[in-house]
UniProtKB/TrEMBL annotation:
The species this protein was found in: Algoriphagus kandeliae
Stretches assigned to the Carboxymuconolactone decarboxylase-like domain: 27-105
UniProt name for this protein: Carboxymuconolactone decarboxylase family protein
Residue stretches spanning the membrane: none
Gene Ontology molecular function: any one: peroxiredoxin activity
InterPro entries registered for this protein in UniProt: AhpD-like, AhpD_core, CMD-like
């Protein structure tokens, strides 16, 4: 199983288990997240690029992978992704570099699927 499939399968399986508990707070938080990235004054592509940069600065590899895939689906191209990477690295500093490496690896998986 490849990196992309492994990530998506695990995420889907665990989200299903979490949501099956029917916890109102968790369900509302998941819904808030979904709504925040919906089309609004900013388009989905822009919101996903912002989410990616924030995830890199916060050093959340799962979040980075999620937003990379959403960026890819929204039509973000390689040059745009590397501009997002550059902003995240500038804001976050050298501690972001290991996450940058994994992000580039995951982006290449998306490009080659």
């Amino acid at each position: 199983m490849g990196l992309l499939e492994e990530f998506n399968d695990y995420r889907a399986k665990m989200n299903e288990k979490i949501l099956a508990e029917d916890n109102k707070v968790i369900k509302r938080f998941f819904n808030l997240d979904t709504n925040a990235y919906s089309e609004g004054a900013l388009d989905v592509k822009s919101k996903e690029m912002i989410g990616l940069a924030c995830s890199m600065v916060l050093r959340c590899d799962d979040c980075v992978k999620y937003h990379l895939e959403q960026c890819y689906k929204a039509g973000v191209i390689r040059k745009e992704i590397f501009e997002v990477f550059s902003i995240a690295t500038l804001i976050g500093g050298s501690i972001v570099i290991p996450h940058l490496r994994r992000a580039v690896e995951f982006w290449e998986v998306l490009e080659n699927q």
